[in-house]
Amino acid sequence: MARPAQLVSEPRDGGVDAAVAAARRIVDALLQAGEGTDADMTGVAKQLHAVADSLEDQAPAREERLVEMWRGDGITRHDPVTGPENALAPPLRLTGDEDGSVAGTLTLGLPYQGPPGCVHGGVSALLLDHTLGVANHWAGLVGMTAELTVRYHRPAPLFEPLTVSGRQVSVDGRKIRTIGALSAGGRDCVTTEGLFIAKQVPRPR
Amino acid sequence: MARPAQLVSEPRDGGVDAAVAAARRIVDALLQAGEGTDADMTGVAKQLHAVADSLEDQAPAREERLVEMWRGDGITRHDPVTGPENALAPPLRLTGDEDGSVAGTLTLGLPYQGPPGCVHGGVSALLLDHTLGVANHWAGLVGMTAELTVRYHRPAPLFEPLTVSGRQVSVDGRKIRTIGALSAGGRDCVTTEGLFIAKQVPRPR
C-alpha cells in the first residue's frame, strides 16, 4: 500500500455524498442566518420538510439499513467525524503515516462553536476520540474506548486550519493506550490519552 | 424562579428554529437512505444547494452574526448540544433541580452512531462536556474546561431514551469540579469528571 494511506472514506462526486455536502451547507447557513435574517424561514422549513418526506418515503427499513451500513467500508462511510454520508461530520479526512501516526487537517465553522469564536470542548473530544480509534485501526489492533482523558491547554479557533493527530503507544494484553492532539498554528490546543479494550460490538447481520 | 428550571433555550414554533428542525430530518433521512436508495440524490443535492444559496445571500456578515449570537440567551440558542438554531444538536433539553443537579433525556438516531447500534463514544463526551458546563451555570460559577475524564462502562444504545445529568461538586479558588453521567434504563453507560477553571473567553462586540 502506498503511504501515507487514506484511512477514511473518500467523498464521492454524486449520490448521497453530494446531497450530504449540500446538507452541510444548510446546517451552516441556518446558523449564519440566525434570528435576525430576512429569509423566509417558513418557506425554507416547508422546502426542507418536503425533501425529508421524499427521502423517508424511499428509505429502507432501519434494521435493513443498519446491516447495509456495516458492510464493506463500514463506519467510515457514516460516522459523525469522517463520514461522507453524515452531515454532522465536518468531515475530517485522516491519513496514516509510516511512523504509525494518523493525522488530518480541517477548518470548523459556526456549528462547532463552544466559547465565542472557538471550538466547543466537547467537539474537540469527539474529534480526538474518533481519531484515536482510527489510530488503533492503523496500528492493527482496535478496541472499545474504556477511558478518555482530554486536556484543554488553549482555546482552538474556528475558521482556521486545525490539525488532528493520533498514535497508538502501547498494547498490554487487551489494554491499548493511544494518544492524540488537536493543534492550531503548530501549538497544541487539546491533548488526549485513551485507554481502549480490545473487543468490539458485533456488526448487525 | 419555579423549579425545576429550564436551562436551555426552548425551540420556537416558527422562524429559524422550525427550519433547523426540518434540517435535522434531512440529516437523519440522508443517513437512513444510504447508497442503496432509489431516491434522486442529484435532485436532492440541487434542491438543498438552492436553499443554501438563498440563505447565504441573505445572511449577515460573520463578524456581525458573531456579535448577535452572543447577545441575550447567548450560547443556548446556537450550541451543538442544546441549540435550537444548530441542526447538529439533538437537541438536548436540560433542567436544573433544587438539589443543584441538571438533567435531561433524549433519544439519539443514526447520525450519532459509533459502534453498531450504539452512541459514538465521542458524542457521549460532547453531551457530557456540555452538560457539565450547564451544571456549572446552574451552580452559579462557570469556567473553561481544563480537563475532562470520560469513563465508558457499557455501550449506550441508539433509539432508546437516555438520561444525561451533571452536578458541580466542589469549588476551590478558581478550580471547579463537576461530574456527570449518561445512563440508559437506570444504568450508567458513561460517567465523567471535569475540572474547570473559572474564566471565560470574552464575548465578541
The global form of chain A is globular
Overall average pLDDT of chain A? 92
Amino- and carboxy-terminal Cα gap of chain A:
30 Å
The structural class of chain A is alpha+beta
Q: Looking at CATH, which topology of chain A would you report?
A: Thiol Ester Dehydrase, Chain A
Uncertain residue ranges of chain A: none
CATH architecture level-2 label of chain A: Roll
Helix content of chain A: 25-40%
Biggest interface, chains and residue tallies: A-B, 92 and 91 residues
Multimeric organization:
homodimer
| CATH homologous superfamily assignment of chain A | Hotdog Thioesterase
Strand content of chain A: 15-25%
Organism (chains A, B): Streptomyces diacarni
Family (chains A, B): Belongs to the THEM4/THEM5 thioesterase family.
EC number (chains A, B): 3.1.2.2
Enzyme class (chains A, B): hydrolase
Q: What would you note in describing this structure?
A:
2 copies of one chain form a homodimer. Chain A contains 4 helices and 7 strands. The first copy, chain A, starts with a strand and ends in an 8-residue tail after the last strand. The first copy, chain A, has helices at 15-33, 41-58, 62-69, 121-139, and strands spanning 5-6, 95-96, 101-106, 144-152, 162-172, 175-184, 187-197. Chain A has a single domain (5-197), classed as Hotdog Thioesterase (Thiol Ester Dehydrase, Chain A, Roll). Chain A is an alpha+beta fold. At the A-B interface, α1, α2, α3, α4 and β4 of A face α1, α2, α3, α4 and α5 of B. β4 of chain A pairs antiparallel with β4 of chain B, so a sheet runs across the interface. Chains A, B: Belongs to the THEM4/THEM5 thioesterase family. Chains A, B: It is an enzyme of class 3 (hydrolase). Chains A, B: One of its GO terms (molecular function) is hydrolase activity.
